[in-house]
Design brief:
This protein is mainly α and about 325 residues long. The chain has one domain: Farnesyl Diphosphate Synthase. Helix content is about 75%, strand content about 0%. A two-stranded antiparallel sheet has the order 1-2. It is globular.
């Protein structure tokens, strides 16, 4: 897939200017950090989904650009806070904010980004869009805390895993699509449909991310990282629920007590591969992708819809 997608290339340029403007500060330290954040931006998948959903349902306008900026502000705020929580010193191949400026400043920067997002919407009376995205922030916090709670006893069922990723990852993508659709159509039905579409894409995206932990591609995080952090993801949950009691006991012991030993982590990875955990997760990921595409096909065929389909397929076919 070509980045940026030609159908929204011009709109992405405008969005970047709006976003850059929205994070400016009169405090020089903050402004320095904001410039650093803007410079090391990722692929901006969520703003792309905002713009594409908006274009699918109407004409892109100022409200759409503010919605895309709000999404990116909230997403960046959560990443900055996540790096503090996870004690992570690298993000997308760059030093994280907490690595360069320490935890106290990183937490305050996350708060600043959050407040800038709220004000961007409130100052322009974008109440419905703020409502859509505030729900996502609440869900993301709940998902993160549920994951921490469940990691303690390592007794995770598949439905709980899906609840965690629906809240933690998919909620923001769902809200991105909903906010984009609402910004151009004010149509509650189209907004709800695209929200569901975004949720299913987000779930597929997270399963793909979890699969990287068992692959050999260079994905920006070391293989076995989730095991080291005692995060139970779908391939491992499937294995624990479908292997012999003796193997289950052995795997849980490794995750709890030997999760820092490289050879033991490799043992877990091998068990997951042999049990069919990878194939099962791949199948689940593709099922969510296909459900999302079926919903997308309910909209009229256009270049925008075609680009959205390509973006969905990119999320499940990507190599990193």
């Amino acid at each position: 897939m070509k980045f940026p997608p030609p159908v929204i290339a011009k709109e992405l340029e405008i969005f970047e200017k709006v976003f850059k403007e929205s994070v400016k500060s009169h405090v020089s330290l903050l402004d320095t950090i904001m410039r650093y954040i803007v410079k090391r931006k990722g692929k901006q998948l969520r703003p792309m989904f905002v713009l594409l959903s908006a274009k699918l349902t109407g004409e892109i306008n100022d409200k759409t650009y503010r919605a895309a900026s709000l999404v990116e502000l909230l997403h960046t705020a959560t990443l900055v806070h996540d790096d503090v929580v996870d004690e992570s010193y690298e993000r997308r191949g760059f030093f994280s904010i907490n690595a360069l400026w320490k935890n106290k400043i990183a937490v305050l920067v996350g708060d600043y980004l959050l407040s800038k997002g709220l004000l961007l919407s409130l100052d322009n009376d974008d109440f419905e869009i703020l409502k859509i995205l505030s729900h996502a922030v609440k869900q993301m916090s709940e998902g993160e805390l549920l994951q921490i709670e469940k990691a303690r006893n390592l007794n995770l069922q598949e439905d709980t895993y899906f609840e965690i990723i629906k809240n933690k990852t998919a909620s923001l993508l769902a809200s991105s699509c909903a906010a984009g659709a609402y910004s151009t159509s004010q149509d509650q039905l189209a907004t709800a449909k695209l929200k569901q579409f975004g949720e299913w894409v987000g779930i597929a995206f997270q399963i793909k991310d979890d699969l990287f932990d068992y692959g050999n591609e260079d994905v920006g995080k070391p293989t076995g990282n989730d095991i080291r952090e005692k995060k139970l993801t779908l391939p491992l949950i499937y294995t624990l629920n479908n292997c012999s009691p003796a193997l289950k006991k052995s795997l849980i012991y490794i995750i709890k007590n030997e999760n820092r030993r490289k050879e033991k982590v490799s043992e877990v990875i091998d068990a997951v591969k042999k049990s069919g955990g990878i194939a099962y997760s791949q199948q689940k990921m593709e099922a969510y992708r296909d459900k999302a595409l079926q919903l997308l096909y309910e909209f009229e065929h256009s270049e925008v819809r075609q680009t959205m389909e390509e973006l969905v397929r990119y999320t499940t076919d990507r190599k990193y």
